[in-house]
Design goal:
Layout: E1 3-12, E2 15-24, E3 35-41, E4 48-51, H1 53-61, E5 65-66, H2 68-76, H3 79-91, H4 96-188, H5 200-205
Parallel strand pairs: 1-5
Antiparallel strand pairs: 1-2, 2-3, 3-4
Helix pairs in contact: 1-3, 3-4
Amino acid sequence: MAVKIRLARRGRKKLAIYDVVVADARAPRDGRFIEKIGTYNPNTPVAAIELDNDKAFQWLMNGAQPTDTVRAMLSYRGLLFKKHLQIGVIKGAMTQEDADKKLEAWMKDKEATIEGKEKSLADKVAAEKKARLEAESKVNEARAEAIKKRQDEAEAAAKAAEAPAEEEAPAEEESKEEAPAEEASTEEAPKAEAPEEKSEEEKKED
């Protein structure tokens, strides 16, 4: 029976997570399996891989063939390199102690690489967040300046509208003050003394 180490899908649409299972190669992808040895969640910033290394290594040594995705995961966890070293020990190319030392050195380098990648991703997320906040603050400042400018323009227009009204008011008062003087002059004109008429005796004498 051909045995494969592969992924079995579960979870919601567009948020799928996978089980790492050992199954018969003839079984459906999400069908029956022999054993579950881990999970894989690609939805996190750094893909989360939970794997039972001992069981996975045992199945590899027993001849189970991983799919391409699972092979990348096993290589990421150092299990393929461990298998390579163990085959060398079985063939007598190296001792078990040498194989363990090489595997330990490889794991340290791998951990340093993973930490560096996680740090770079965290720095990238922080930089993007900072840039987004700065852009938002600039937009808010520009909006506040535009509002202030409109308010200043409205105040200036209101002051300009009030100024002519104040200038016209005294002119009207002056015209009102001049009007009674003109009326007085017109009223005084008829009051001028008319020439006295001559009496009848004076007319006869003339």
